Structures are given as structure tokens and as C-alpha cells.
Amino acid sequence: MVKKSTATYIHANIKDLIKTRNKTKKAWQTLRNPLIKTELNRIEKLIKKLDKHSRQKDQTEELEALNTEDGKLWRKAKIMRKKEQKIPVLLGENGFAYSYSIKAETIALSLEKQFSLNDLSHRETENEVKKSTENFSTLPLTNNQIDNLKCIQPSEVIKVIKNLNIKKACGLDCITNKMVKNLPCTMIFEFTEIVNNIFKFNYFPKAWKTAVVVPILKPGKDPTQPENYRPILLLSTLSKLTENFILDKLNEHLAENKILCPEQFGFRKSLTTTHQLLRVVEYITSGFEKGKCTGAVFLDVQKAFDRVWIQGLIHKLIRYKTPPHLLRLLKSYLEERKFAVKIGNSISEAKIMRAGIPQ
Hints:
This protein is an alpha+beta fold. About 55% of the residues lie in helices and about 10% in strands. Among the domains are: about 10-65; about 90-140 and about 205-235 and about 245-290 and about 305-350, no CATH class. Strands 3, 4, 5, 6 and 7 form a 5-stranded mixed sheet that branches. A two-stranded antiparallel sheet has the order 1-2. α12 (about 310-320) runs antiparallel to α13. GO terms for molecular function: RNA-directed DNA polymerase activity. Keywords: Coiled coil, Nucleotidyltransferase, RNA-directed DNA polymerase, Transferase. InterPro entries: DNA/RNA_pol_sf, RT_dom.
């Protein structure tokens, strides 16, 4: 009875405050007195505080009333642990999509167009890239190149596994980071053998090249249009573990040959956007001290990762004299990738990514 009366008292207070707020708001709109505006802000803050307190009290009462015997407690726990994303009716090419399965297929078809090359043909460049990649594919690997490969050790795999975040979502194989963290030593040795064979045969498993896409609505966009959803790609945990070792090999080559320019801060260890901002501020400050103006041009490339020309990327890696065994593995990693959109418990058919790289 005390809780009920307290809740009633809070709701009554909120109603009274709303009436006072409406009167104060009219007075502010008429008189434009700063003191009235201050009072209006105070009332609005108080309303928000009481409303939050009221909702917390209602939730507490609801949780206290749950019973373990009728299953209500477990159903509530499941809802609280996993928040289901609500996607409204979508307007696709084939009409309206109502069910989860049709919504997933509609967004998948939209993304299939998104993961495609821009229509900017340049015959000379295309011919150069085609010739370069075809010539590389026909070159055989020498025994020296294969024998010189440094094997991955189980200790290195364990080190990477320790850094896994157990809260990260799993991929299509449903193997979570928590599962990987609890693998016995024998399985660590087996996985290390798999990684070493991936490097030895320059082949990335096809089973790891299909990503699950979770669509997230872009801020301020129309939720009924499938192209307004940002694709969040969920990759296999084992795939991401292997990627760490591929990236290490690639970074070694880039660092040894000084390929990356010093001004590139993205995707590099110990460098963040904060450092880049600091660098810009230093330029501006230096300009002020010398009595000069500093100009800057900022470019935002639309669908930058989603429309990467894979053959063009491989061509660039050839020009940067990437070790042949590593380049073959990267080629295997980038090509023939697929994705499937998941909404609720429904998943679309796997679609081919004709362009773009996994993020």
C-alpha cells in the first residue's frame, strides 16, 4: 500500500508540474524574461527526474512480482538480456515486406547492389589490372618461399585469444568468444595447425567467408527504405583470430619497406584520430603565430569500404612487392565472399559480395 501511494503521489506531482510548466512556457514566449526561462528549465529538469524515478519504481515493482514457478521470471530475463531490433514494414522492389524473412531478403537485395563496383570504367586501368593479376596467378611458388615461412606458435594463439571480448557477437558458425576462451590445450594446438596450414597452402577457408549482417537504421533516415540501413557484419570468431596473424605479416612488410606514408593514422598501432586532430591543431597554431591562415579540405568517400575494387587492390599489393605467398593468401581471403542478413530468427539467402572488403 505504501508503494502504491508513493507512486500515486509522484504521478500527481508530475501532473501539477506539467501544468506549471505550460503556464511558465507561455509566460516566457510572451515576455522573454531570462528569469522565467531559468524557472522553466528548472521545472523541466524536475519533471524528467520525477518521471525517471517513477519508471524505475514501476520496473522494481514489476520485477519483485515475478514468479519463478510460472516461468515469467525467465521470460523477462531473456527479454532484458537481448533487445530485439524493431524494423517496420519495408518498401522493397517487390512491394511491401511484412514478415522477418521477407524483410531480411529485401535488405539483402539492397545490400547486394551496395556491395558492387561504381560504374566508372577506364579501359587502360582495367587492362593493366587484369594483365597484372593474371600474370601473378600463373607464377609458381618456389620451395624457398614456402620453407622460409615462420610457423605460428600456440603461445601466440593463446595471447590473441586472451584479448578477445566475450561480449562480442558471434558469426554464422555460432562459435562465441567465450567458447574460444574456454578451449582446452589440445584444441589450441589443433587450431594452431589449421592457421599454419592456411599460410602453407595460401588458402582461406570458404566456411569463414560468409558474414552475418545485422541491419542498423541510420540516424534520421526513413525506416521503410531498405537502403537506409547500415550493415554491421558479424564474422566468424575463428576467422577473426586468423586475420590477426595475416595482418601481422602484412604490417611487417609495410613497415620494412616504408610503404605507408607517415601522415596515415587510420588502422595503425598506437595511432588514433586524436593524434591526427592534435596534428591539425599544431598546424593551425603555427599558422596563427606566423600571422597566416590555414586551409583544410576534408573528404568523406561514400561507401568507401563497401565498393572497394578487389582486383584493383590486389594489383596495388603486387606493385608494392608483397611477398607472393602472402599475396596469394590475401587474394583467397578477399575473393568469393558472401553475406546473409539476419532479422530476429530469420536469415536471408547468402548473397555474393562483388566488391568491398570485410570490416
